[in-house]
Specification:
single chain; Alpha-Beta Plaits; alpha+beta; 4 strands; 2 helices; four-stranded antiparallel β-sheet
């Protein structure tokens, strides 16, 4: 899984969650810190480009900024 952290306005948290959930199975969003609007978005590695494209597209509608990246993909 690829996990990235983003910051969005608190007022946009529900909207972002709704959009992510509407793309069933592509990614999972969790709120890390509601006060600061920090969320984590995790996706399987094969979907990482699709998720990046989705986030870029959302960036034209809402203020969303990547603040960190964690690659939790396991290497065998």
């Amino acid at each position: 899984m690829i996990t990235r952290l983003y910051q969005v306005a608190r007022s946009e948290l529900a909207y972002l969650q709704f959009i992510i959930e509407s793309y069933e199975g592509i990614a999972i969003m969790s709120t890390v810190d509601r006060a600061s609007g920090t969320v984590s978005i995790s996706c399987p590695a094969p979907f990482s480009a699709d998720v990046a494209e989705l986030i870029a597209s959302l960036g034209t509608e809402i203020a969303i900024r990547e603040i960190a990246e964690r690659d939790t993909q396991r290497h065998a």
